[in-house]
Write a structure and sequence with these properties.
Elements lengths: L2 H27 L13 H34 L4 H30 L4 H30 L2 H4 L2 H11 L3
Helix pairs in contact: 1-2, 1-4, 1-6, 2-3, 2-6, 3-4
Bound molecules: fe (ii) ion (2 copies).
One fe (ii) ion binds next to α1 and α2.
Length: 166
């Protein structure tokens, strides 16, 4: 694996994990399942909430921080400022859904969600699934696939080193 492929593969793998968690979240908050509020006494609900929080912390929040602090500044030096500004704005929008959703996840682990809390959870989940899916599609097409053209080997090597500290 080349150094370009290495950093691209890491980010790509986290995108896939995020999409898989979004798929599970969507499945639990839409269709038939949406009639039943989350209840952590049910092992599958508890597992879903815990897995969701873990993915949000690692593959979304940590991943966003790495992109904003390490990857995007390098891309900006290669004339990608317009793209990174748009991606950072999307991060901010997504984080706006994450904060209240995580609070409700915490509540759901302590007691079953009430009716209005469940409606709020579902609305936030829908917003999060839509915004994050769209965001990842953009990054996959605009950055991950073109990593070799966008960054030189030294920059990629530096990113790989820095990444281990995140
Ligand atoms: Fe991103
Ligand atoms: Fe990303």
């Amino acid at each position: 694996m080349t150094i370009h492929e290495s950093i691209g593969a890491t980010l790509h793998a986290e995108h896939l994990q995020t999409l898989s968690a979004m798929d599970a979240l969507d499945g639990r908050t839409a269709g038939e399942a949406k009639r039943r509020p989350l209840d952590a006494l049910r092992p599958e609900d508890k597992q879903l909430v815990e897995a969701l929080v873990a993915v949000i912390d690692s593959d979304v929040c940590r991943h966003f921080r790495f992109e904003e602090e390490e990857l995007f500044p390098k891309l900006e030096k290669h004339g990608m400022g317009d793209v990174t500004r748009m991606l950072i704005e999307e991060h901010a929008t997504i984080k706006g859904f994450i904060a209240p959703l995580k609070r409700l996840c915490q509540t759901a682990l302590e007691r079953p969600l009430g009716k209005s809390e469940w409606v709020e959870f579902r609305n936030l989940a829908m917003d999060l699934v839509n915004s994050i899916t769209f965001h990842i599609q953009k990054e996959e097409m605009g950055i991950i696939r073109g990593m070799e053209m966008l960054l030189d080997e030294a920059s990629c090597r530096e990113l790989v080193c820095r990444y281990s500290a995140y």
